[in-house]
Write a structure and sequence with these properties.
- The complex is a heterodimer of chains A (312) and B (248).
- Chain A folds into 2 domains: 2-219, P-loop containing nucleotide triphosphate hydrolases (Rossmann fold, 3-Layer(aba) Sandwich); 228-288, 2-Layer Sandwich (Alpha-Beta Plaits), CATH 3.30.70.100.
- The model of chain A has no long low-confidence stretch (mean pLDDT 87).
- Chain A is of the alpha/beta class and 312 residues long.
- Chain A has 11 helices and 14 strands.
- In chain A, a hairpin with a 2-residue loop joins strand 1 and strand 2.
- Chain A has helices at 40-48, 69-73, 91-101, 106-119, 135-147, 165-179, 191-197, 215-219, 237-242, 269-279, 293-311; strands at residues 2-11, 14-24, 29-33, 55-60, 63-64, 76-79, 153-157, 183-188, 200-205, 208-213, 228-233, 247-252, 258-262, 282-288.
- Chain B has 248 residues and is mainly alpha-helical.
- Chain B is globular and about 55 Å long.
- The two termini of chain B are 34 Å apart.
- Classes of the chains: A alpha/beta (312), B mainly alpha (248).
- The A-B interface holds A 11, 45, 48-52, 69-71, 73-74, 76, 78, 80, 82, 84-89, 93, 97-98, 100-103, 105, 145 and B 3, 6-7, 9-11, 13-14, 17-18, 21-22, 83-88, 90-95, 247-248.
Chain lengths: 312, 248
């Protein structure tokens, strides 16, 4: 439903987004990841039709967003990063305004506003002035605004930023619930969030897509993926394990535990256990690492950074 | 109602409420009425003049508007840009043209409401004498159009910046130019050395000749067209600024 082709956006001499392409279909929760200033917000703004790309095209349900933003925006609910709201309005007044602009009036408008208030748990503050809301309620008011016209596409720029853990949980539940019939594209730099709700993750760095995969598969890129950490009593544990054919390297931690890294794509847990039995080591603790997204994130974005430094 | 009109209406309604949900509307209307009364009755010596016409009332409007209208208009876009709500407004299927028309209508109607509330002045004149009804009508027509032109100029300067103070000052300067360009002291000064066509050219930018014609009770299509063209030009300029500047 969203198709971005070679998006480029310059701000003066600075290129914020540099050739981003991707395609997303229904039922996907796409996590857009990247360090600060990587171009996440700029990309989402271009998809939303707020910011025209310097070159490249975004199609939303087949409509070129730069050519006809008004039609494209009818299928988009967009929550900007700064959660801008009209401070002088009440929550329900604000939602009524957006509903009217979205083309609903009278009873239809009111029932849509009621539904959005209910879905985003805004009941207690519906008649409260927006300038008096806490961060969590502001965030949810801005989210409610995206749902009024039942859009097929939700663009959420850092939807859980600044929320407490409970509120984060609530927002994530809502996103997951909404995702089945839609495309949700959210940007974040919270990696646990990607693991919790995203079915696909795109990592961008320096304005370029550096990884595009499911979170589970991304984790396998971690050097720690399938690494085995163990505490074993016996002679020459590290040396012995280092000689196993599938082992890339062995590291001894300060507390005496040994971390064994496999060669890419290999699984070594069984082999290590067999060796331990054979050598009669007493293994008191053993753990297989599933790989961690933040390691992958750091590996990928850090190498990008060094590449850039080398180029400069 | 078609979609574009609905968008304009929704934006206009929001802006209108924004005036009245804050003290702005009440402070503005009270100050406007007080100043209009003060100028009319004290400075222009409405009673002492002993004439049942409203020239003493209308002649101050350009100056009053020059200071007060920018205060009404400065918020319109500067605030949207400062708070970032413009990103919201322009991603909910509203075009810049629809949004600016809605805002313009709300602000203009607000000014017209303030103007209508000066009804006590013509009523006083009617009570005391028998002024010409047609002249009163054309005077109000001129004043209403003048307010619209100031609003449009104020909206343009509001779109230029996210700072309301800058917007206010720029709008006052534009207003001052549009008054002075045709004000007799200035045109006299100019006509001492400049050729007549230049004097006329500069003066033709001014509100004053058009406004004064309407005050005298002369409704000339060319004067109406002048105000309409100032409004349309300023709205168009606002749209250009919004399209180019908003998305930085």
């Amino acid at each position: 439903m969203i198709k971005a082709q070679n998006l480029i956006r310059d701000f003066g001499p600075r290129r914020a987004v540099d050739g981003v392409s991707f395609e997303v279909g229904k039922g996907t929760v796409l996590g857009f990841l990247g360090p600060n200033g990587a171009g996440k917000t700029t990309t989402i703004r271009m998809v939303s039709g707020f910011l025209p790309p310097s070159s490249g095209t975004v199609f939303v349900k087949g409509i070129d967003v730069a050519v006809d933003p008004v039609s494209a925006q009818k299928s988009i609910g967009y929550m900007p990063e700064t959660t801008p709201l009209y401070e002088d309005m009440t929550v329900s007044g604000f939602l009524k305004f957006i509903a009217e602009v979205r083309g609903f009036s009278g009873a239809e408008r009111n029932s849509r506003v009621d539904r959005a208030i209910e879905r985003c748990f805004l009941g207690p503050v519906r008649n409260q002035g927006i300038d008096t809301l806490s961060k969590g309620y502001r965030q949810r008011t801005c989210l409610a605004q995206t749902l009024l016209h039942d859009p097929d596409i939700l663009l959420l720029d850092e939807p859980t930023e600044g929320l407490d853990p409970n509120q984060k949980q609530v927002v994530r539940e809502m996103i997951r619930e909404m995702a089945s019939e839609r495309v949700v594209m959210l940007s974040t730099h919270v990696l646990e969030e990607v693991e919790a709700i995203c079915t696909r993750a795109i990592i961008i760095s320096g304005g370029k897509v550096v990884a595009d995969d499911t979170p589970a598969r991304l984790k396998t890129r971690s050097t720690k993926y399938n690494a085995v950490t163990l505490r074993a009593e016996g002679g020459g544990v590290a040396e012995t394990l280092g000689k196993l054919p599938a082992v890339e390297k062995v590291q001894v931690l300060e507390d005496g535990r040994v971390v064994v890294f496999p060669k890419a794509g290999k699984s070594i847990a069984a082999e290590i256990l067999a060796t331990a039995q054979e050598k009669k080591w007493t293994v008191s603790d053993i753990k297989v690492d599933e790989g961690r997204l933040d390691d992958v994130f750091r590996q990928i974005t850090a190498t990008e950074d060094t590449k850039k430094k080398e180029a400069a | 109602m078609n979609e574009a009109a609905q968008h304009v209406m929704a934006v206009a309604k929001r802006e209108w409420r924004a005036y009245f949900d804050s003290p702005v509307a009440y402070v503005f209307i009270i100050i406007f009425l007080m100043l209009a009364g003060f100028f009319t009755f004290s400075l222009a010596q409405f009673y002492e003049a002993g004439q049942a016409d409203l020239s003493g009332f209308f002649q101050w409007h350009p100056w009053l508007y020059m200071i007060l209208v920018p205060a009404v208009a400065m918020r319109l876009w500067a605030e949207e840009r400062r708070s970032g709500t413009i990103e919201l407004l322009f991603t909910v299927s509203v075009t810049p043209l629809q949004a600016l028309l809605g805002k313009f209508i709300a602000a203009w109607l607000f000014m017209l409401l303030a103007l209508v509330l000066t009804f006590t002045v013509p009523f006083t004149a009617i009570y005391l004498g028998s002024p010409d009804g047609g002249t009163i009508f054309s005077g109000y027509l001129g004043s209403g159009l003048l307010a619209g032109a100031y609003i449009a100029a104020g909206m343009f300067t509001s779109a230029l910046t996210r700072n309301q103070v800058i917007s206010f000052i720029l709008a006052v300067v534009i207003g001052l130019f549009l008054i002075l360009a045709g004000y007799p002291p200035v045109t006299d000064l100019l006509s001492r050395w400049a050729p007549m066509w230049l004097v006329d050219g500069v003066a033709s930018f001014s509100f004053m000749p058009h406004y004064e014609a309407l005050q005298r009770g002369v409704i000339d299509l060319r004067d109406l067209a002048y105000f309409a063209s100032v409004i349309v030009f300023m709205l168009f300029a606002t749209q250009v600024v919004l399209k180019n500047k908003v998305s930085r």
